[in-house]
Amino acid sequence: MRKLDPEGAGDYIDALFRAAWAMSGSRQIAEDLVQETYVKVLSRPRLLRRDDDLGYLVKALRNTWYSHLRKERVRREVTDLSERVDFAERMLAKQKDAAQLAPPR
Questions:
Q1: 1, 12, 48, 68: least buried by Cβ within 10 Å?
Q2: At what angle do helices 53-101 and 27-42 cross, to 10 degrees?
Q3: How far is 105 from 97, CA to CA, in rounded Å?
Q4: Structural domains of the chain in order of their starting residue, each with its CATH number
Q5: DSSP string, the chain
């Protein structure tokens, strides 16, 4: 077991960026993913079992990507739900307006 060298971890930024871009299909998201990965990994000392720093960082990047996808799914579900609520409120308002405009029977 050995510690991940924070100074040496910066050597893999280009490789991680290319991997993140391939995962996400977006340059901007790739930049954010790499930055978030480095923040998480370098926030505390990491112990590695092998001499494969890049492999460790790619796994951390993949986990960051999965977290991003989960957050996006939840955000979309909340947005979809709020859009449905807005639609239902508009329909109720139209029904109330129509009931008020209808001649009495």
A1: 1
A2: 120
A3: 17
A4: 2-73 (1.10.1740)
A5: -EE--HHHHGGGHHHHHHHHHHHHS-HHHHHHHHHHHHHHHHTS--EESSS-HHHHHHHHHHHHHHHHHHHHHHHHHHHHHHHHHHHHHHHHHHHHHHHHHSPP-
Per-residue burial over 10-29, b = 16 or more CB atoms within 10 Å of its CB, e = otherwise: eebeeebbebbbebbeeeeb
User: What is the tens place of the pLDDT at every residue in 54-88?
Assistant: 999 999 999 999 999 888 876 676 666 667 767 77
Rounded to whole angstroms, the Cα distance separating 49 from 34 reads 22
Using left for φ > 0, alpha for ψ between -120 and 50, and beta otherwise, residue 25 falls in: left
Comparing CA positions, the residue from 18, 2, 12 lying closest to residue 57 is 12
At 34, the pLDDT band (50, 70, 90 cuts) reads: very high
Is residue 51 very low, low, confident or very high in pLDDT (cuts 50, 70, 90)?
confident
Q: What token pair was written down for 69?
A: 């996808």
